[in-house]
Amino acid sequence: MIKKYNLINSFFKKIFAIAIFLAYFTGVAQEKGYVTGKVFTSDNEPASFVNVIVKNTNKGSVTDENGKYTINSISPGEHTLVFSLIGLQTKSINITVKEGEVITVKNIVLNENEEQLEEVVLEAKRKNKFDQKQTEFVSRMPLKNIENPQVYSVITGELLKELEVTDIQSTLQNAPGISNVMQGIGSGGVGVNLYLRGFSADIAMRNGIGASVRTGTDQSNIERIEVIKGPSGTLFGTSIVSSYGGVINLVTKKPYETFGGAVSYTTGSNNLSRLTVDFNSPLNKEETVLFRVNAAKHNEHSFQDYGLVRNWFVAPSLTYKATDKLTLNVEAEIYNNNAPSIYFNVANTGISSMNELNYNFENSYGSDYLSNENKTFNVFAEAKYQISNKWTSQTVFSKSSVDNSTNYLFLDFADANEATRRIMNIESQFNVTQIQQNFIGEFKIGSLKNKLVAGIDYYDIKTPYRRTQFNYDTISADNPQVDFNPKKYENMLGETDAFRVGTRDQSSFSIYASDVINFTDKFSAMLSLRLDNYNDREQDYKQSYLAPKLGLVYQIINQELSVFANYMNGFTNVAPDMSSGEEVKLNPEYATQIEGGIKAELLKGKLSTTLSYYDITVNDAVRWENNGGVWSQIQDGKKSSKGFELEFIATPVKGWNIVAGYANNNSEFVEGDDSIKGNTPYAAPKTTINFWSSYKIPLGSIKGLGFGVGLNHVSDSFVDDQNTLLVPSYTILNSSVFLDKPTYRIGVKFNNISDEKYWSNMGSYVQPQKTVNTVVSFTYKF
Description:
By secondary structure, the chain is mainly beta. 8% of the residues lie in helices and 56% in strands. The protein contains 6 helices and 42 strands. The protein has a 22-stranded antiparallel β-barrel. The longest helix is centred in the N-terminal third of the chain and has 28 residues, at 2-29. The protein is globular, with a radius of gyration of 27 Å.
């Protein structure tokens, strides 16, 4: 143990020495400085697309959606910065640039009158508000979408507002390729299971760092959702965090430099009553200490006869700009969730389609007195240090603590009419810790420009648990509302011994690096590698894996049109098989993806599209085999998942915005048992479609009045790998009307207006989903 500690200690010392060397080398070699800052309008909103020019030079920049700008390589001396945008008053300021230093300019406020403000809003909105792919998380370095060989989608904050969503589950269906979104088993009622590129996935990332899939959060604290496609083991790992289909990353709301916020109340069908508060303020006149808090209280009845949701949530966050070079961010999430979890098990019914089940969507077969209680406390901390104008150190810490008292209700159908109500009670605690250190920078080798991220990642999860289950009673379509007696439940639970008591105790330690080499202004390559060491202390086994990644990008038109290709890798650690009484070691399951396509950012940002074709192969896939009543793991499987995806984001005219996606996937068991060979893996639909379009009137007395319409389509999928039981396809239609003004917003959303009766499918178990419902929201902005 001491030897292992010394090795790790020695490794950290080497990493630190390299960081000091890089800091010294880049600081000495760099003779020029650079300028950064933010621009706001007089109503405290970030001013996007403002031109920032260094007068009498060819240096300049344009502010992003957060009003931020950066200008590199400015010669030392006195300079004048000029800020301009049509409809805003032009402003000039004098700055002094010193050799090798970072100059942070105090926030610039550009004034305008009412007429000018209208013009500014119109100009800014010409860029689609649904297309905001600037992110520091996908590649862990500043890399534009057009330059990135990996495919990803972003569900923006603006889209979240228009969709009037009150939970993350409803949101995820608005990214191409996502299907079968539902409560995940083992999640304590708060985790979300979904399918992406033919593989099961869940949400286990917050702000680019891992959190337990059992960790709950509320929609009110989500700034945007990033859907990173393909097996992303190289940068994120796979055994604990991501799946072969991709990574879901939630980006939370951060403090900003001006006073502002909103209070919102939402009501609607199923006794929905939801209150949210978003409050932001600088805490000192220098605006170096910034505070923000988001909070929510959510009450709702199930869309069926029984089932109550009772949630509350608080998320404070603090940003401290300690120096011009060091910024500290700390945020917390405190979440209490109480909601039911009901799953339908129809494997033994003999039916071939869920349409044959004798079931009325108005019935839950559950009770208001049987639910899960989930208590979550998350803390995230980040320290960013600007080593030089080319190198940054990022240190991130994440801690998730969850107490679960779970009551899953499984409806085991013996035929199409009658089901046994089986209750599984799980008492558990999830404790997840992740520490990550990244060094991000730019350098040259000869004439070749390089962007590099190099880091180390430590992830640890401990989960003590106790599981008990028993059959409560039998229920049928003829008698769907049998009384549930809480006292009877408590007595049966007390008289039943736990069938499993244990502790999940796992960790991983990883080293990774990713380098983007610009051979020319148009042609670049991404070379990435991760060494992952996984340790399962409970089952006493370790596995190491090397995950490479290669990406190529050629920009046919600079910053507008590119072709790309990638080779990516993912892996899953597999515990030894003990069914024979002896330990049989198994290899890590691994997946490789080959993908190619086109990315376009055309018409000055008014049109964005990505078209890609991928081919994912999973080797050493594990399957379970029954030998005389003894189940054992057999590692002879091979899966293939091929398909293409199209994402289309456009703003044809001012005020009109469109986001749409189409995905076609063909998943197949290439090798394995004869009963599944050639079949489609469960819960993997062939086709998914997402579409949302809205128009907000930009002029006149009814400026701000808007309308939206959308749909989601998922084709047939199977409940089992034998392909004997079908979950039928479905199409959901939605629409909205809203009035969006600078100080308030009123919105009405009509969900599932055709009252489609449909199921989400995670294989073995399925769940009925919400029927027709309406959501009404009132927001005051300050």
